[in-house]
């Protein structure tokens, strides 16, 4: 059986990390595509030269030509501009929308059967635009945000409880941004929900509130520390989990930005919800029951996503 093909559109900080992880995990052969000449070729060669040491067989190729992504099984999109200190995700909108147009056209022409995982920010609006520009079915175009947000939530909780990160599950809904909705009562340590852990004296409501706040601002915390860019290790690990899940038809239930068609009373928008991710891409959207407070937070997150979509339509009326 021929190896699978993973196309990485954008070979910057996340793209390079994606290439390294995809090759190490032998998910398939890797094509790094970027408009910057030499960067994808250099990163591809550097990673390939580590393969004899680490013992994996994966062919890596750098390219500036969309033809090289032909027949890709998975396309992971990080092309665009990353957030700099003082820049909100929304500031990125104008630049990255144009990038989504060219990427969408490239994928439509050369890899129309791929699962497309978008990472470029502002995520929910970019994945929505990318699906429209590419014309691919909505179940095959998903956005990576929820796995990253919930991984941050899980990590902070594991530190608070001094337990393994593997024992912590977390649940995050809504748009990728400061309005995301970490759902405390659906987040657990070994199945014990956080409100019960507060009652058991493991932590306090104030500490959980602080962790929720830190999770919401998790991206900004890294930007402030790095000063010259945004997070890349955890975003790359999150997207690789999605790619692997699709290629192996694992049907993990994971939070992703998916197109809603009636779920949560919403239509034609992408927002973070739990989905079943398998060989058909987004196979099912899980509609959880929200209480009044959660619904209010989700609604305000959705409103923030709608605002970005409206701004996109103003910039490019073809999206309307
Ligand atoms: N086509 C292909 N590649 C492009 C294009 C384009 N039209 N425009 C820019 N690029 C490339 C850049 O040359 C750069 O190598 O996209 C890459 C982006 O890499 P970085 O600037 O290192 O950004 P990164 O940290 O990888 O983040 C990428 O993901 O999380 C989001 O906010 C983040 O939107 C950003 C994206």
Automatic annotation (TrEMBL):
Coiled-coil residues: none
Keywords of this entry: NAD, Oxidoreductase, Tricarboxylic acid cycle
Family annotation (CDD domains): LDH-like_MDH (cd01339)
Gene, per the UniProt record: mdh
Chain ranges of the Lactate/malate dehydrogenase N-terminal domain: 5-143
One of the record's GO molecular function terms: L-malate dehydrogenase (NAD+) activity
SUPFAM superfamilies assigned to the protein according to its UniProt record, in alphabetical order: LDH C-terminal domain-like, NAD(P)-binding Rossmann-fold domains
Group of enzyme by EC: oxidoreductase
Annotated Lactate/malate dehydrogenase C-terminal domain residues: 148-309
UniProt-listed PANTHER family: L-2-HYDROXYCARBOXYLATE DEHYDROGENASE (NAD(P)(+)) (PTHR43128), L-LACTATE DEHYDROGENASE (PTHR43128:SF16)
Annotated organism of origin: Hyphococcus aureus
Protein name per UniProt: Malate dehydrogenase
Positions of NAD(+) binding: 10-15, 34, 96, 119-121
InterPro entries documented for this protein: L-lactate/malate_DH, Lactate/malate_DH_C, Lactate/malate_DH_N, Lactate_DH/Glyco_Ohase_4_C, Malate_DH_type3, NAD(P)-bd_dom_sf
């Amino acid at each position: 059986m021929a190896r699978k093909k993973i196309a990485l559109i954008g070979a910057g900080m996340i793209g390079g990390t994606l290439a390294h992880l995809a090759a190490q995990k032998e998910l398939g052969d890797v094509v790094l595509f970027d408009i910057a000449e030499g960067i994808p070729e250099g990163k591809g060669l550097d990673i390939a030269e580590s393969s004899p040491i680490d013992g994996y067989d994966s062919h890596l190729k750098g390219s500036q030509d969309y033809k090289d992504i032909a027949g890709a099984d998975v396309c992971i999109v990080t092309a665009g501009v990353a957030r700099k200190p003082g820049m909100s995700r929304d500031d990125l909108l104008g630049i990255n929308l144009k990038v989504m147009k060219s990427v969408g056209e490239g994928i439509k022409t050369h890899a129309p059967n791929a699962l497309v995982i978008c990472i470029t920010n502002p995520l929910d609006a970019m994945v929505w635009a990318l699906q429209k520009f590419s014309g691919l079915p909505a179940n095959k175009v998903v956005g990576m945000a929820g796995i990253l947000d919930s991984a941050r939530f899980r990590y902070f909780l594991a530190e608070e409880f001094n337990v393994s990160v593997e024992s912590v599950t977390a649940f995050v809904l809504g748009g990728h941004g400061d309005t995301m909705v970490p759902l405390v009562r659906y987040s657990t340590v070994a199945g014990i929900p956080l409100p019960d852990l507060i009652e058991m004296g493991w932590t306090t409501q104030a500490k959980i509130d602080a962790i929720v706040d830190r999770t919401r601002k998790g991206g900004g915390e890294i930007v402030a520390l790095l000063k010259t860019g945004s997070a890349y290790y955890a975003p790359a690990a999150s997207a690789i989990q999605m790619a692997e899940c699709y290629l192996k038809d694992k049907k993990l239930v994971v939070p992703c930005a998916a197109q809603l068609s009636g779920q949560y009373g919403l239509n034609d928008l992408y927002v973070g919800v739990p989905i079943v991710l398998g060989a058909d891409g987004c196979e099912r959207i899980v509609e959880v029951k929200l209480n009044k407070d959660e619904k209010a937070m989700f609604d305000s997150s959705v409103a923030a996503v709608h605002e970005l979509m409206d701004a996109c339509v103003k910039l490019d009326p073809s999206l309307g």
